[in-house]
């Protein structure tokens, strides 16, 4: 019992320390995960409800397969039509060009199909007692969905597949009546939304919120207290300037570390790297070494984004 209490107290202490930490956030733009070769135009060819071979894997209904494949195609088109990074071209024109052996009027296109779709409904008996303490049997119905999608991104000019992958989803629902089970499409729809979001991250830059944690200062220096107060009030520019001033005057590790972290949060990655590298080299402090690694990773992502945008210039 003592060990359990000590473990709980330890966990609570860690939680309190984390909750007391000063954290700032910023929204950064991430590069597309794939090299799209500078493409500016894109199309979505309708996803098919079966594999190109015509083989239907699984026991789902044709209606459910079509509803899911149509939903993916529509969601991709609607969300791509709402971005400035690409110009969305007509899927019909692209399909006609491909069928006639002509060069499609687009640079890249996305397409795919449902490789497997199992929709299984099972029933099981569960014994329980009612208010009169009599044994009764309840029937529980379970719907299990097993869906496998295959998708590919194709360079329309060369017909080279830039990326091909598959994604599997599993979902289930339980009810005391078969009629109240969620329909197959409603059950799998959240996974399809997630699939579309993940696929869009692969082909275009996207925004991500990043959190940065500062080191708490034990110094009684009023300037350090002021710097921390500014950071807590989300006055990042002012807090960074104050930490930099303290670091330049005193060489205080915490001030230098926090200044570098705030510079990173504001996007001044190279200056942040210079300060953190000096701290890591001089002190070998694990926190500085880890933070330096994170900053270098942010620089790589930033440079990748710049290169992707440069490749798209006319």
Describe the structure concisely for a colleague.
Helices cover about 45% and strands about 25% of the residues. With about 325 residues, it is an alpha/beta fold.
Helix-strand blueprint:
Layout: H1 2-20, E1 23-30, E2 41-44, H2 62-81, E3 87-88, H3 91-99, E4 108-129, E5 135-155, E6 160-175, H4 184-203, E7 206-213, H5 222-232, H6 236-250, H7 253-265, H8 269-283, H9 286-311
Parallel strand pairs: 2-3, 2-4
Antiparallel strand pairs: 1-7, 4-5, 5-6
Structural account:
This protein has 314 residues and is α/β, with parallel strands linked by helices. It has helices at residues 2-20, 62-81, 91-99, 184-203, 222-232, 236-250, 253-265, 269-283, 286-311, and strands spanning 23-30, 41-44, 87-88, 108-129, 135-155, 160-175, 206-213. The strands form 2 sheets. It has a 5-stranded mixed sheet, covered by helices on one side. A hairpin with a 5-residue loop joins β4 and β5.
Give keywords.
314 residues; two-stranded antiparallel sheet; 9 helices; disordered N terminus
Helix run count: 9
Summarize the helix and strand pattern as letters: HEEHEHEEEHEHHHHH
Query: How helix-rich are the residues, as a percent range?
Result: 40-55%
The outline comes out as: flat
From the alpha carbons, calculate the radius of gyration and give it in angstroms.
28 Å
> On the 0-100 scale, what is the average pLDDT?
89
Strand content bin: 25-35%
Identify the strand order in the major beta sheet: 3-2-4-5-6
Q: How far is the N terminus from the C terminus?
A: 70 Å
Unreliable spans are 1-19
